[in-house]
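Q: Got a minute? One more chain.
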Amino acid sequence: MSADKIKKQAATAVDEASTTARDELEALKSQLEHFLNAHVVPPISDAANAAVTNAREIAEHQKTTVATSVSAKPFLSIAISFVAGFVLGRLSR
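A: Always. Here it is, folded:
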């Protein structure tokens, strides 16, 4: 066998191996994407939706609590707001 023939056979073998490896990687990528879309994304999406719902409920509860407190003691609420605004104004200078 000549060196050129061995070189061509080696190049062919390397090309075939790289093509096979590329095809296997593409198949693995496709399987991983399918697995993630079928088994990982839905639970994460459900958890995110539950977290958003809980945050909205907490915000609504806090809004109601603050509104009740302000209604019960309006002058105290105004005084607290004045002091907080004054302090923040002084700190921002």
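A: Residues 1-92 form one domain.
Q: Perfect, thanks.
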